[in-house]
Structures are given as structure tokens and as C-alpha cells.
Design brief:
By secondary structure, this protein is α+β, with helices and mostly antiparallel strands. The protein has helices spanning 19-29, 43-66, 73-86, 154-172, 180-193, and strands at residues 90-91, 104-107, 110-112, 127-136, 139-148, 178-179, 197-198, 204-206, 213-217, 228-229, 234-237, 240-242, 248-250, 258-260, 266-268, 271-276, 279-282. Strands 1, 2, 4 and 5 form a 4-stranded antiparallel sheet that branches. It has a 3-stranded antiparallel sheet with strand order 3-14-13, with no helix packed on it. The longest helix has 24 residues, at 43-66.
Length: 285
């Protein structure tokens, strides 16, 4: 266990500790990494993220209805961009650290951050990840789905299915006062049991008031490690599962697209969640 000297959680002077305070202070006293107060969102803030998630989900539904062989990835980007803007929201990816498009579209061996282009045409058998982040009234929601174009190979079909299962087992491993490592351990075991690997260079993240925030949600690791997860925290789980080796590289031509090192296929599913007293609630349905 890593011991963290920094005291993230402090009870305000003159305030009686709540039950949550006592629990978090206990874990902090044992050397665990605990969240700072700013990561515990109010019901109003969570409702704002939930409303953003409604648009984000509807946008992915629209992609699902239209994605097909012969479509360019730029057409997907325009479809999503126009829908988000029409609904009074903002595509968070556009301009983020210089990213040139409104969504990410990653095909086959592309793990994530595929840049839409008029020159990239979807073909029969492709497996495609579409990743969308929406800002509504200052609140962020983030989710991605896999799509199979036409009929693909049994190997690719299984990869897509198991990647979704990895997200689901990660969800089941998450409960109040568990650790990020509990999620990662469950995902890693399920991926390995099916002969796959988990990308380690990228992770899930806190989201809601910012695009990226603590905690870092790694999709591999040991139980009882990483940040303590408590009610009111909002974050993504988004395992990237590789058919071959877990290592990746960034395409030098665009500086963004992450590709599996052995160029074997990769798959990813993602949701935004809030931790409640009873477990996770999905905010991107």
C-alpha cells in the first residue's frame, strides 16, 4: 500500500464531522489517498451533468442510427457536431488542447483519439469507437460506444463484446468507499481471462465541472489501491482492451491518434458515473 502524506480531507474549523468525514478521515489516517472536498459534487451539480448526459446519449443514439459502410469519419463528426449545437450544448473536444474536431472516431487498431477526416471511409468489417463529450451550461458528460460495420470477423466481434463486459465488471466492482484499484483489478482479470490486455497509458478520469479531473481511473491494478471513491464523486470508466499487447504509440502524422503497438484491433466502451450511497448511477444513458 502506498502511504500519502498529503491530507486532502480536512474538516472545516468549527464544523462537526459528518459520518462521511469520519469515514474518509479513517482511510486517510491509514495512509490511503482520499479525495479533496472539491471532488464531492452537490445534487444540483450532479443534475447538471445528468442533463448534459441526456444530450450526449442522444447524440450517440443518432450516430448508431446512421453509421454505415461508405460513410466518412468526417460525416460522423458533422452529424454529432450539428446535433450537439442544435440542442444548445458545446462539443467539448473541439479545440481542446488544439484537437481539431468535435468527436473522436477510432477504427480497428486505433485505440482512441482518431481524428475524423473526409479521407477515412468506413468499410465492411471495421470496428469503430465513437467518443463524444458534451458541455451543457458548463457541465461535462463523456461516453463512447463501439460499432461494428456490417459483418466482421468472430475475433473482432468477441473483442467488442468482451470490452463492453469489462466496463460492466468495472461498474459492479465500484461501491461507496471502495478504491479505484478495485475497479481496475476487476477489469484486468476479465480481460486476461479472455486472452486480452488492458491499455495502461490511458485511463478514466473525474469529469463534470471540468473535462478531466481527479481521480485517475486506471483499468488495471491491485485492490485497495488508488483513490478512495465516496458518494458525490463523478468519473468515467472507459477500459481500452487490446487483442494483442497492451502497449501503444501515438501517430506521428497527427500527434493525437493512439494506436496499438502491434497494430492489432482494440475496443473501448465508456460511461460517466456518479457514486451514490447505493453504488454507481450512470449519467450517460
Amino acid at each position: 500500500m502506498h502511504l500519502f502524506k498529503k491530507k486532502n480531507w480536512v474538516v472545516p474549523k468549527g464544523q462537526e464531522p459528518t459520518e462521511m468525514d469520519r469515514k474518509i478521515l479513517f482511510y486517510q489516517s491509514k495512509g490511503h489517498l482520499v479525495p479533496r472536498r472539491g471532488l464531492i459534487l452537490t445534487p444540483g451539480q450532479i443534475d447538471g451533468i445528468r442533463k448534459s448526459g441526456v444530450i450526449n446519449t442522444a447524440c450517440l443514439d443518432l450516430v448508431a442510427e446512421n453509421i454505415k459502410e461508405g460513410m466518412t469519419t468526417n460525416e460522423i463528426d458533422k452529424l454529432a457536431h450539428d446535433f450537439i449545437v442544435k440542442n444548445g450544448a458545446i462539443p467539448a473536444c473541439l479545440g481542446y488542447n488544439g484537437y481539431p474536431k468535435s468527436v473522436c472516431v477510432s477504427i480497428n487498431e486505433e485505440v482512441c483519439h482518431g481524428i475524423p477526416s473526409d479521407d477515412i471511409v468506413l468499410e465492411e468489417g471495421d470496428i469503430v469507437n465513437v467518443d463524444i463529450t458534451t458541455i451543457l451550461n458548463g457541465y461535462y458528460s463523456d461516453a463512447s460506444r463501439m460499432f461494428i460495420i456490417g459483418k466482421t470477423s468472430p475475433e473482432k466481434e468477441k473483442l467488442v463484446r468482451v470490452a463492453k463486459e469489462c466496463l460492466e465488471v468495472g461498474m459492479k466492482a465500484a461501491f461507496p468507499y471502495c478504491f479505484v484499484g478495485d475497479i481496475g483489478n476487476a477489469i484486468q482479470r476479465h480481460a486476461h481471462d479472455n486472452g486480452y490486455t488492458v491499455v495502461r497509458d490511458l485511463c478514466g478520469h473525474g469529469v463534470g465541472l471540468k473535462f478531466h479531473e481527479d481521480p485517475e481511473v486506471e483499468h488495471y491494478g491491485r485492490k485497495g489501491t488508488g483513490m478512495l471513491l465516496v458518494p458525490g464523486m463523478v468519473f468515467t470508466i472507459e477500459p481500452m482492451i487490446n487483442m494483442g499487447d497492451w502497449r501503444v504509440f501515438i501517430d506521428e502524422d497527427n500527434g493525437w491518434t493512439v494506436v496499438s503497438d502491434d497494430e492489432l484491433p482494440s475496443a473501448q466502451w465508456e460511461h460517466t458515473f456518479v457514486m451514490t450511497d447505493n453504488g454507481l448511477e450512470i449519467l450517460t444513458y
